[in-house]
Amino acid sequence: MTDDTFTLTPHDIRSQEFPRAFRGLDPVHVEAFKQRISEEFERVLRERAQLEERLRNFQEQLRAFRDRERAMNEALLAAQQLRVDAEAQAQRESEAILREARTDALRLLNEAQLQERQLREGSEAARRQFVAFLANFRSLLERQLGEVDGLQAYAQTTAHAQAELVLKKQA
């Protein structure tokens, strides 16, 4: 009975026969005890079957939970990778925008410096032209004044000469 392959069923218990001896066991008590043992054994086997069924259900639930956990971990890793990729993409885009802004700023600065230089040159050219104009105008005015002085001197000489003629004629 200690053999590992030996299995006992409720039917084995019910059908077990004991040899009779003089003044042996009371068959009614033995039968009642066998009946109680076989009923208890049936109950234990039913309970075991229920527990095994529950164990299978729990194992299936555990497998489902592990599958869910694995899926959640994969989703979490995918989300983390997506976040890392999105951050890297945003970083690349911001760097590109900054490079473009710097390029535009340098272009605008160069254009502004070119315009400033052109305005300064234009202003300097206008100033030189104005100075030249003033010098030419002054020269013109001085020539004109010279001619006015010449005409005035001529007029005085002529008026003087005529006054002398008139005086000579009167005398």
What can you see in these coordinates?
With 171 residues, this protein is mainly α. It has helices at residues 10-15, 27-170. The mean pLDDT is 89.
* Rg (CA only): 65 Å
Give the termini separation.
193 Å
Strand elements, count: 0
Helix content: over 70%
- Biggest sheet descriptor: none
Mean of residue pLDDT values: 89
- Which regions are unreliable across 5 or more consecutive residues at pLDDT < 50? none
Number of contiguous helices:
2
Oligomer: single chain
Principal-axis shape equals rod-shaped
Strand content: under 5%
Write the layout of secondary structure elements.
Blueprint: H1 10-15, H2 27-170
Main attributes of the structure:
single chain; 171 residues; mainly alpha; 2 helices
Brief account:
This protein is mostly helical and 171 residues long.
